């Protein structure tokens, strides 16, 4: 099935979609609707201003409705809405509800099960004479009602005619999205109308209600033939036909119908039939005369020739210039165009525009030609260098650029540098205005994030890296990273702006990699999380990824070098500790109970060992080798404890014995023995000498015992 409102594919029928869940990634409803409706189907967006959704009421089993949900910040024209509301409901689609919620404007309309005229033509082919008569009467009445409110629909086509009934055929109008309030004469710069049903004068940007009657004529002719009279023609050929030739009615057999169509499809809007003429035809007025297309084109005295084209008017010239771009560029450079505009067409406004454009030396010839086309025919469908320009075209070239196509890259860069999209946006082209707005907004956001990232990088480089020779030699900013190539940058910005899937894939690619790198790259923390940042910053992070990988590689190399250095340091500590350990073992085996120097040497070795052990424990890293060394130290500490205690005890005892075995004590002892010898005799002297010997043994025995413990403990130390 097709959407009744825009002819887009409808993947699920309403009868089957009552229990269906919304497709993944579908829009969520604003809060004012969320509690009353649920989304059954979302149709792929074609327009720049709104989404169309099939919705079902949460309460009850009522029929589904169509919700037109405008993009955030876009609101339908209030004056147009007010006038549309005054059109009788038998001529327009009924509006069930409208409003603004959470910044989103919306309109709720009934779902028409009979479909649109487009669906009927695709399914049944040409309409029967009774159906055709009913269509003409219904459409004429609808246009009278629209124009009575001083509105011009501007986008009449079979897709916008919904069927109220099939027998008799009765249509209602929908999609007043580009409708405008009618003044005496309207000048439009927007080319949002559908080319196949647009009046020739729309190329010049000047419209009135007669433009809707041209569209009516094309719709009736297509309904009579079963196909559009210009079907199969390219846009360029279609434009040329509209500007230079009358619509061929030779296949219409019915003379009265042919009269109506000839009147509706007169290329001169002043002569074209309108409300009164159609009413006379419907009434069967026998006095109504056959309309006649004006014989030759008015305008220039001599035509401007491009290839096989002969141009007499400004809009014909614009169409031909757009179709013969290389010739047009050459004629613009040579001054031939200006001479014809001045001498033959006598269009001095266009001459002044050309003079102004020629003074703008920063513009290329292609850009000057573009601005001339927009002046000559503001309603001309967008074109650049002979190729049609649309949102789809730009996105296609962006996709080709992302695949590495150099032609796509050059084309994309060209339309940006030449300001092509901006020119059409300023001229009022709605689709390209939306493209320009999104593109420029994404570019501005990227530029802001890029400058912020450069500042962060420069700060971290200044703190952590010396200026390189190349940076100083070539005047580069320390820490700067090369920007993405312009064409590739623009292609990615467009992908971010119009393809949520591409954005999500880029986010999923970057987030884990940057999270892994952030452990070693400190400035990544200042850039924000890839999983949460706004889309343009993803491109900044993507551009910084090689630099982050370089930092991580450098950090890993420095870490490995530091690890290697630490391993060398640990190995040296192990060797030093082993040397001291062996010295301790050797010194312990040479301890003599009466040799103070040997014990003092052992104490020195133990102190040296302690100092090295303290150094090992105080090191600020914890790799495996160091941990094993610390565990070995812990075991050695246990083994050394008896030796250390014995050594300390020996030294304390030896210090205490210094008074007992000093020279003065020896003199006193000798004098005492001699005195006793003189007074008592030899026996008394021997007793005194025995007492002195026992006292000496009492003081020396602990030293001998401790020295024995030291020798035993040292001998038991592991090698």
Q: How does the SSE layout of this entry go?
A:
Blueprint: H1 31-34, E1 37-42, E2 50-57, E3 65-70, H2 78-85, E4 97-101, E5 104-110, H3 117-124, H4 129-148, E6 151-152, E7 161-166, E8 169-173, E9 180-181, E10 186-187, E11 206-207, H5 210-225, H6 235-244, H7 255-264, H8 275-282, E12 304-306, E13 309-311, H9 314-323, H10 325-334, H11 336-343, H12 348-359, H13 365-376, E14 383-384, E15 387-388, H14 391-402, H15 406-417, H16 420-426, H17 430-464, H18 469-474, H19 486-498, H20 500-517, H21 535-589, H22 596-617, H23 624-657, H24 663-679, H25 682-715
Antiparallel strand pairs: 1-2, 2-3, 3-5, 4-5, 6-9, 7-8, 10-11, 12-13, 14-15
Transmembrane segments: 686-704
GO molecular function, one term: protein serine/threonine kinase activity
Protein name: Protein kinase domain-containing protein
Strand content: 5-15%
Largest sheet: 5 strands, antiparallel
CATH class assignment of the domain at 119-282: Mainly Alpha
CATH topology of the domain at 119-282: Transferase(Phosphotransferase), domain 1
CATH architecture of the domain at 119-282: Orthogonal Bundle
Average the pLDDT over all residues and give the rounded result. 82
Largest sheet strand order? 1-2-3-5-4
Please report the number of helical segments. 25
Radius of gyration: 49 Å
Provide the low-confidence segments as ranges. 1-26, 183-192, 466-478
Structural class label: alpha+beta
CATH superfamily of the domain at 119-282: Transferase(Phosphotransferase) domain 1
Quantity of strands, as a count: 15
Characteristics of this structure?
elongated, single chain, Transferase(Phosphotransferase), domain 1, alpha+beta, 719 residues, two-stranded antiparallel ribbon, five-stranded antiparallel beta sheet, Phosphorylase Kinase, domain 1
